[in-house]
Amino acid sequence: MGTPLPQDRRGAPQRAVVTGADSGIGKAIAVALAGGGVDVGITYHEDFDGAQHTAEQVRGLGVGAAVRRLDLTDLPTAAAAVDELAGELGGVDVLVNCAGTGTATKAMDMDFDTWRGVLAVNLDGAFLCAQRAARHMIEAGKGGRIINITSVHEHAPRVGAAPYCASKAGLGALTKVLALELAEHDITVNSVAPGEISTPMTGQEDVDPRTQPRPGYPLGRPGHAKEVAAVVAFLATPAAGYVTGASFVVDGGMLLMGPQASGLLTDSTWREP
Ligand code: NAD
């Protein structure tokens, strides 16, 4: 037997906070982490019933759940929800920044408040929640995981989504800086970058992605929220202890298609959101 690796000394995570866990990808992440024996702190913005439903599913898996409202347009105050959830759960070993919002307005038509609102939720809010969670992790001295849900638009642009793309690319860069700065505390920081996933955000709540043909995607369909959650759940395990500063694209191959697909477009409809 050799000397144990650092990640072996660190046990499996016990407590996670998942922002935006009242629906979609965040809900699937909360349930996937609960399935691994993790107590979960759930935040919601407007859908209290959705958050309660997630909590019921989490508790149904035999672990604890706590719920708080979080409005990331109300900063820096709102980030205190992370402290409250950590207090109720007895700490936080994993933070998943999943809350997010976007626009469908061209940059030239966008007012400053709309721009700032998206940046607040997707970037400022994620920064403040990461800062709060990391302070708890550092104090506890047992390492930790921060996982930021970005988007394929961390890596590639989209018409009508200037603040979304800027915030997700910024969150990808923040992920890398935090990975550098928090490594000495055995806290890893990674991003997960989904493509089109069947959730309320894409107008596909409760839709089976296998019934939605997408001939332009190499895998031919949107993704399921569970397919994003599975990657997040892996990153939360001790087995992922040497992975930090990375961006995991979960997009059915969409990002690979840029040059090939753009050459096949025959009109200019792509210029409009
Ligand atoms: P969703 O609409 O189900 O979830 C969005 C979540 O963000 C909700 O839980 C909501 O409570 C939270 N939220 C919205 N505004 C907020 C605010 N002001 N303060 C705090 N929380 C707020 O959509 P989803 O698809 O599950 O999105 C989850 C994350 O995944 C987002 O960050 C989104 O950008 C990202 N994403 C989604 C897709 C997709 O195709 N669905 C693709 C790439 C990235």
TrEMBL record:
Region (Disordered) residue ranges read 193-218
Protein name, entry field: NAD(P)-dependent dehydrogenase (Short-subunit alcohol dehydrogenase family)
InterPro entries with a match to the protein in the record: NAD(P)-bd_dom_sf, Sc_DH/Rdtase_CS, SDR, SDR_fam
Instruction: Please provide the record's keywords in A-Z order.
Output: Oxidoreductase
Family designation: Belongs to the short-chain dehydrogenases/reductases (SDR) family.
Under Gene Ontology molecular function, one entry of this record is: oxidoreductase activity
Q: Name one GO biological process term.
A: monocarboxylic acid metabolic process
